[in-house]
Amino acid sequence: MSEIKNNGQLKENRIIEGYIKLETGLHIGGNKDSLEIGGVDAVVIKDLKTGKPIIPGSSLKGKMRSSLEYLLGLCDRDKKNPDVLHIHASIEPCNDKNCPICVIFGSSKNELSFKTRLIVRDSIALEEESIYTEIKMENALTRVNLSATPRKFERVPAGTTFPLELVYSIYDQNNDRKLFSKVFEALTCIEHSYLGGQGSRGYGKVKFYITKITAYDNAYYKNEGKERVIFENEKGVSPSEVRKKLYS
Ligand SMILES: [Zn+2]
């Protein structure tokens, strides 16, 4: 039987579940208007309904993207100032149909019109207690006269956990399956870097725990097949462990 060319047919969705645990305080900036605490200079983004802190899917996805760009050396260099790096494919369209960045994260600046393969869900803190954040003072030193300008930062405290849910879609059987491993590489890079702001001051150290990966193929949606559990571990394991298990 000859292989039918894929005209955009969805072959499979893979849902990755787990949780994100904060090892140090996290600051992902929110809208100051929505906060009642007085005198805070930088607030964290929160769910309007529950008041609990959020990790927006866009923040995690953006950090995954930039981590992979650095890992693969695919940032764009500014033409006038080569020391300045830009987001991949933001200056010139990328015409590589197998490009890991454009395929996984999508790109609108391409004739090949890459469809994004990765969805990252918004995540609301799991903690039940009523105190969800802490205020930390940071000193911004003026280089000229070393005068300190104290600023109050709101952070989500270390130990807080958030649910993790990613959806990875497979259209091209070979390339998309191969690139699935990059998702775990990106998450590992974030563990060794940080999430959110003030990372160089120690904020935003996180650990990911993957508990389950389930595959839903094309037949599943037509009630002709069942889902397939690719990976399961109740306690959850690190993304690098998952990568090893899936690709060794
Ligand atoms: Zn690209």
Automatic annotation (TrEMBL):
Keyword annotations: Antiviral defense, Endonuclease, Hydrolase, Nuclease, RNA-binding
Coiled coil: none
InterPro entries from the UniProt entry: CRISPR-assoc_RAMP_Csm3, CRISPR_Csm3_endoribonuclease, RAMP_III_fam
Molecular function, one GO term: hydrolase activity
Keyword check for Hydrolase: yes
Gene Ontology BP annotations: defense response to virus
Pfam families, A to Z: RAMPs (PF03787)
Keyword RNA-binding: yes
Residues of the CRISPR type III-associated protein domain: 20-207
NCBIfam families associated with the record: cas7_TM1809
Family that this chain belongs to: Belongs to the CRISPR-associated Csm3 family.
Name assigned to this protein: CRISPR system Cms endoribonuclease Csm3
Organism: Candidatus Heimdallarchaeum endolithica
